Amino acid sequence: MHATVSPGRNTWLAMLTVAVVAAAAMVAVPAHAGRSCDERKPVSAQTVERGMALAAQTAQALDAENERSGATVVLVGRAGQDLSKYGLRYSHLGWAYKTPEGPWRVAHKLNECGTAVGHVYRQGLGEFFLDDLWRYDAVLAVPSATVQAQLWPVLNDNTRVKMLHAPSYSMVSYAWGTKYQQSNQWALETLAYAMEPTTVRTREQAQAWLRFKGYEPTALKLGPLTRLGGRVGSANIAFDDHPNEKRFHDRIETVTVDSVLAWMQRSQLAAAPATVQVGR
Fold first, then answer.
1. Is residue 1 in a domain?
2. How much is the pTM?
3. Residue-averaged pLDDT of the chain
4. Mind listing the pLDDT tens digit for each residue in 166-214?
5. Domain count, the chain
6. Dist CA 166 CA 181 (whole Å)
7. 202 in a domain, yes or no?
8. CA geometry: angle at 176 spanning 175 and 181, to 5°?
9. In the predicted model, is pLDDT for residue 62 greater than 50?
10. Of the ranges 12-21, 45-54, 69-78, 204-213, which one carries the lowest mean pLDDT score?
């Protein structure tokens, strides 16, 4: 369902809140990305309303960009957890695309809470922002026309959208490894596949293309105690895919939203990012 924000906005939000909460209550295994996997608290009405408000404003921004430039694919990111101590603003990204029916959908990878497994999902903007977000703002980056033309058919194809998906999940998976795959890594590797579908058929080939195009992952400074605590306390965090010479020097290289945004703008694959905010 798609609706524009109008004088009836509060009524629409209330109706959508009821529908989304009811749908969320039927989900047996919580899925998430870009936030901790602690035991989930009941979703509050305020959380849902603010998430829906952010979804509505994001839909407006996407529709405005579609009318202005004809955009049908846009990178969208959210702030699911506080990563400021690492110099990062956003935690999770997906590819928003305009469906043939009209509404925007988001293709992204989510981790099943309490497991080391992830799956690719298609969700509406309401579902994408229905989370206990750290900060209620979104980031949007409009890819070039060429990138959009390559990505759109992939995102709409049930087989191709999962071409490079690997279910083994680690939140801090090595950017140049294939043992695990976190959410942002799937999105980036899928971009590589979409851009070179005849030559990129494996994750190794996707990563080679990304290296050639100058992508640089974020190097997180994580000491041994932090690494040990993360590995012992969470099924979805592992460090054994990182090269020893980097891991033992506290250098954890992984794919982040901020690094993808910087690279896409630097390589002229996308315009400068813009933000959509909902006041606290």
1. no
2. 0.85
3. 85
4. 999 999 999 999 999 999 999 999 999 999 999 999 999 999 999 999 9
5. 1
6. 6
7. yes
8. 55
9. yes
10. 12-21
Domain enclosing residue 198, as ranges: 9-277
* Long-range CB contact pairs, 9-17, < 8 A, 24+: 9/56, 12/56, 13/49, 13/52, 13/53, 13/56, 16/52, 16/126, 17/45, 17/48, 17/49, 17/52
Q: What is the CA radius of gyration of the chain?
A: 18
Residue where the block lists tokens 């994580």: 222
Lookup result for tokens 């999770």:
92
Domain-located, residue 103: yes
| Size (the chain), residues | 280
Specify if 256 maps to a domain: yes
